[in-house]
Amino acid sequence: MSRALGSIAPRPAVARRTLRTLLVSAVAVLSAAVPVASYNWAAVTAYAQSCWPGVLPVGQSTVLLQAEPQQAVWCVQLGAEPDTRVSNGNSWLDDFDTNVDMGTLEDGQGDYRIFHNAGPSTYEDRYFRNKNHWMVDVAGYGPDGYSDCQGAPPGTNPNPAGCYNFGNTVIRPNRSFTFQPDGHLIVEADVAAALEDYAGNAWPEIVVSQADHPTGVIDGLYSYGDFINNWTVGCRLQASRVPICAMYDNSGRNAGQGGRVFELSYFQPEGAQHVWGGSPDVAPELAAAWRTCGHDEPDLWCRDRFRLDLTKDSLTLYVNAVKYFEVTGLPADKQLPDALTKGPVYVYDASTIYKPYSDSIGTYPVTRFHWDHFAVNPGTPPSASPLYCPDQPRSICKPFQLGSAPAAAAPAAPQAAPAPPAAAPAGQTGTLDFNDLQNPGRPLTGQYPAGTIDWGSGAWYLSGPYDQMPANSISFNGAGPTSATFDFVSPHTLVQLDADNGGNDATTVTLACDGQPTKSVDLGSHQTTTIQTGWSGACSHVTVTSTNGWDTNFTNLVVK
Cα(168)–Cα(224) distance, rounded to whole angstroms? Predict the structure, then answer.
């Protein structure tokens, strides 16, 4: 299966097909179908060592609140940095307050182990420290002559699967830890996770494993899939602000074979007795705690503190001291094993990418992650990042706002959630295009627009630009379903909608609603069409079917 932006590049959705299906198949190509000896390593080296003049790393703003390189860090001279970590009996604390600009962070420095290219395909990654925090630049595949790679000559990319940067790198303290006597293991990290330009294709992770180094790929999609044959649990901190946490066992089996013990999110309870939070839509305090950075905004505005609290049968994630996601009472077959809770474990910060070489935002051969504060079992209550000021607009601390900057660089005004469109009154026609919804790349749940349509609790997915659709659209939430339903809050008539088949196979789209004739339309690969229902009366319960499942997206619903 292949999802495409334009005609080739996959959509930027973390929780679904872009990554789960396409990436896993790409990893298979890399690890099995293409011998390492066939790679054009001369081209690889030239690509990774390029400085790409004028190409800003993704995640790096041009609005500089502190001096940072505007190109790949391996093209910048770095100096020495002092060690800052404090390591005690079963704890670790590092705030990276070196007061030294642009310094190195290499394997063995600062008492850290760094594992470059831990995943399937990273060409180059480089860690560095600056202005009392640490960062990492990650570069993946370069152009191979495909149209979405700007016509670069063939032979410059050894990856025959396409023009994508994917892979990861991980760092950990050079020591092990254990769960505390009270049964908890606590990991804290400050990181700018919700950067708009990550667009669901780059994200940080917190990983806990019984392995002291990456042992091989069991799930090429995430960094916590780099520890085959070892019990490993991790959480990915997506730009959509919907964290997803998973655990793999030590059997060497992949997810389809049963090796993934659980995958937890607010819409994936895994039989737990209690699940709360997990999305900015759940409560206003959650949306305020996990901040976002818009395009070309400084990472300081959304560098938040994440605290992962694990026990044998629970998982809790705090963001800036606010309880954001809580799962308790996991069933016996989903609980953390003794190998983790009673044995030594290793704690990793991970930086993961899966990005096309270029898209509507621009060209990005390098992605930059901004980290700070790394703590294990800190012995303190949940705390917020020192860069988080909840009494200020957008919770951005005043020293980091740009009140005296030119107007073009001024901070955005506080962003209230957009008011949903009013319900379309009977007898009038309204068009629903989903473009006023923020943070695509997440499930679409509840009422939208308020008082008009109820989308349920997880059957639908809000996507960003996809295939021939240049803006937001919706599809089924997951690779399996071939249909989903929605309900009009009060009876309305669905007049028409636009459908886009982004898959490689033809599909049949069917629309059904109680009391109205069923409408079916055949749609070829990468074909878009407007489907008119022909319905003359109002109804309440609409079923949408597409034989190729989530490869078909929908938008511009006209209701009256």
Answer: 10
Amino acid identity at 490: S
Q: Which residues contact 382 (CB under 8 A, 6 or more apart)?
A: 307, 318, 321, 322, 323
Q: Rounded to 5 degrees, what are φ and ψ at 427?
A: 90, -10
In one-letter notation, the amino acid at residue 462 is: L
Alpha carbon distances (Å) from 202 to 193, 266, 294, 300, 379: 9, 20, 15, 18, 31
Assigned fold of 17-400: Jelly Rolls (2.60.120)
**Average pLDDT of the segment spanning 224-234:** 96
pLDDT (0 to 100) of residue 118? 67
Residues 6+ apart with CB under 8 A from 420: 436, 447, 448, 449, 450
> Two tokens at 122?
């990273």
Mean pLDDT of 111-134: 83
Residue intervals in the chain for CATH 2.60.120.1350: 430-559
DSSP-derived pairing of the beta strands 164-173 and 112-115: antiparallel
Residue percentage of the chain with pLDDT more than 70? 77
CATH of domain 430-559: 2.60.120.1350
